[in-house]
Specification:
This protein is of the alpha/beta class. The chain is built from ten helices and eight strands. The chain has helices at residues 2-7, 26-38, 66-75, 86-89, 108-111, 115-130, 142-154, 184-189, 192-205, 211-223, and strands spanning 15-20, 41-46, 80-82, 134-138, 160-164, 228-236, 251-259, 262-270. The longest helix has 16 residues, at 115-130. The structure holds adenosine monophosphate (AMP). Adenosine monophosphate is lined by residues 20-21, 27-28, 30-31, 137-138, 140-141, 164, 166-167, 174-177.
Length: 274
Amino acid sequence: MRAACRAARPEQRRLGFVPTMGALHAGHISLVRAARQQCDAVAVSIFVNPTQFGPKEDFSKYPRSFERDRETLEAEGVAILFAPSTEEMYPPGATTFVAVEGLSEKLCGRSRPGHFRGVATVVAKLFNIVEPDCAFFGQKDAAQAAIIRRLVRDLDLDVEIVVCPIVREPDGLALSSRNAYLDSQQREQATVLYRSLMRVQTLADTGESDSARLIAAALEVFEQEPAVRLDYFEIVDRDTLDPVANTSQGALVAVAAFVGSTRLIDNIVLHGAG
Ligand code: AMP
């Protein structure tokens, strides 16, 4: 893989990289297209990374559609596809991990202990293998994006991180490989995440900047959808992921909830007044 990536990037040519877990949808493809626009060649990885799943999570049943994904990527003009086995990525005796301390315990990290350690480790490994000039991530996973930016800064990695907007269904539901788990009733209930964020956006647009009041309004929206169990609804600083009491300097509004046993996440960014 390293040899192929080096060959795809002669002098002065930029290699873009899109790491994924496969089961590709239009959100992933938006990253591939951004990479195609901004770089001369694109590499994509498909690897369902076991170290970012908890023991009771959906690693074994995570959707896998390799042949379809491969064809999609070929049609999108992706030059290089990396789909390693677990054994290749984690040979016996692999005991080195990357921990972005402080950030990894926030938001999803609180309810998914070890998740961001797995993410940071596999992304660091993939960066070392691919050696991209530029790597593309989705705003959908806002905490992940903040953690990768910190990782790159703290470890002096020579990779430019580009974060692309969330791609949504017409009714607002953020595209996710896990949406495939939802039955038709759950699919309707799942829009509560987006509806709660839109309530916050509407209030913010009218001048409300008090986080407690914004969160209270979002929780009212969730109360109307009792089948959905909220994991967290938080308003935090975009870089530190620490809660902010007021959104006037801008903030990340992030939500996670269980629809049945499927855990979904979503977020919006409020831009500050200044
Ligand atoms: P995953 O395969 O879920 O690990 O996601 C791979 C990349 O695609 C990550 O950078 C995600 O943030 C990004 N991604 C997933 N869903 C979306 C979406 N709906 N819009 C934009 N990017 C997304």
